[in-house]
Amino acid sequence: MNITTTLPKHVVDLLAKKANELNMPKNKLIEKALTVYLENIEKAEYAKSYKMAGDDLDVMMVAEEGMQDYWKQLKDTDEA
């Protein structure tokens, strides 16, 4: 798929320099950089959702109940 965009000259210059240093076509460098960036955004959103869940009293109560059940299962397994 093709995409057309406009980038500031200093970004294009940095891209060309780094692509040359890595002996990599600019489009491949853009693809890799964008993929990493988008994955990092997804990870940050995932971490943010966990932080928000940690601030939610109802979610924390459910998690604590689940941990109590988990510890009971471990104890029962150890005693068996």
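Next protein, fold it too.
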Amino acid sequence: MAEYKLYCLDPKGRIQRRHEFEAADDAAAIAGARTEFPDETCELWCGTRKIALIPAGREPVLARPVA
């Protein structure tokens, strides 16, 4: 399990709050974030690695596409 941080953003892109959780991998972390916070725009991080921007109600934008 890896540790993830989810930063929920306000309409101007500023951090409103942070949530920390564990997930098996990046895909599970993205799925969990979308389930918990479907109406919020968030950034998902694992340590210093940005995983994705998850816009409210839209598909995640991966920081580094999976090869």
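About the second fold: The chain has a mean pLDDT of 93.
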